[in-house]
Amino acid sequence: MTRRLFAWTTATLMIAALAATAFAQQITVIMPRHEMDLVGMWERQTEQFEEETGIDVEFIQMSWDEVANKVLTDLAAGGGTYDVIEFDNGWVSQFAATGWLEPLNDYADPAYLDALLPGLLSTFSNDGDVLGIPWNNDTRFFFYNERMLNEAGIDTPPRTWDEVVEQATVLQEQGIAESPVTDYWNQEWALANSFAFYLYSFGTSYFDDAANITIDEPQAVAALQFMVDMLREHEIVTRSAVTLSQEAAADLLYRGTSAFFFQGPPVTKNYADDPARSQVVDEVVAAEWLPAVDADTQATLTLPEAFAIPASSRNKDAAWRYIEYMISPERDRERAVALGSLPLFTALYTDPDLLRQYPFWEQFGAQSAVARPLPQVEWYDELVQTTIVQVQRALLGSQTAQESADNIAAFMEGREVEGTPLSR
After folding, report:
1. 3-138+303-372 has which fold?
2. CA–CA distance from 42 to each of 30, 59, 315, 332, 349 (Å)?
3. Residue pLDDT, tens place only, 351-389
4. Numbered ranges of CATH 3.40.190.10 in the chain
């Protein structure tokens, strides 16, 4: 081999090695924008990760629905695009059945897993495999404007749906609140979340414990009819609710247009007290209960989200380093301080500084006692698409609540819940 050829070969090999190293140190992360992260905490912490590790991150944030579409499409096609993905609680059964995810047991130290809230971690585990690490403790809470209620002579927030209508009517008649109830009923995934909350609060769901379809039975139809009545008969929800996202619905609370927000994310209180974002500083509080048909049917949604590593990722070690860095007690605490987001690690709930900053976590605890997850079926994303179309048709008055419920039930016929055939 000539000296020139040797030099050229050596240089080529070095370039190839450097390229391979650089490739291994690049990851692509896709996640939804946190509902109330208006200060860019996730971007900032990702930049810190890049600086501290030298790993380059292509960080993609979009709306939840856009992320879901991209993740589901990519995984169904064989994956390979992303190294860290959004893993929603509604996807656990589907993802476990398809084998799309890399189990994380061999990556995570047992002490690290033990430090996370057990309920969150178990949500994203299946048959002993940890499939995801929670990044968002998104339990929803009932918030109300205490000043508005006091001004109307109302001592306590509503406990029942009948009281919601009564109090909202008083607030309107006295000119205190233009649209006393704010809700997010745009035709997107969040509408299915909202509908699930109303179903639970009426003591029902899509199916019962024996996997029999119940969505078209009286209690479920009554839940949807109540949503329609709030909008069209009582007119206590703004007509624009059918176009509102979660963020837009929360904004009505911050602007003082609405008094009741039944399913606000944990950071709602934090932003309601921020004078840069809110016109109702020190007026919004968290209740100790949630409105429902009666006390026995009280419920709120817990909608945690996790990070997962696709089995098709070519950079699993770097992907795990990103997850471990971002979901650490240090970063978790930073987000709690800046955003008011609920911690992911058990120890932070006894942090004296956090408790002084967020004394209303006591009310969160009372509501969390009745928290329920979304229905778990392998085809939940298909159920959502059917539900949001049918529910909005009822809200818009193009068909009755019973017709919408019947159409959802018709879709569910022939499906399976945890291996059990659905039947009437």
Report:
1. D-Maltodextrin-Binding Protein; domain 2 (3.40.190)
2. 12, 9, 21, 11, 21
3. 999 999 999 988 998 998 899 989 888 888 899 999 999
4. 3-138+303-372, 141-302+373-421
Name the token pair of 144. Answer: 């109300």
Contact call for residues 6 and 13 (beta carbons, < 8 A): no
In terms of DSSP H, where are the helices of 25-138?
41-53, 64-76, 92-98, 110-115, 118-123
User: What CA–CA distance (Å, rounded) separates 49 from 386?
Assistant: 40
What's the pTM value of the predicted model, to 2 decimals?
A: 0.81
Strand pairing report for 26-32 and 84-88 = parallel
Residues 126, 127, 129, 130: is their CA dihedral positive or negative?
positive
How many Å apart are CA 219 and CA 202, to the nearest integer? 6
Q: DSSP E strands: which ranges in 179-312?
A: 181-182, 260-264, 284-286, 300-301, 305-308
Domain 141-302+373-421 has CATH 3.40.190.10: yes
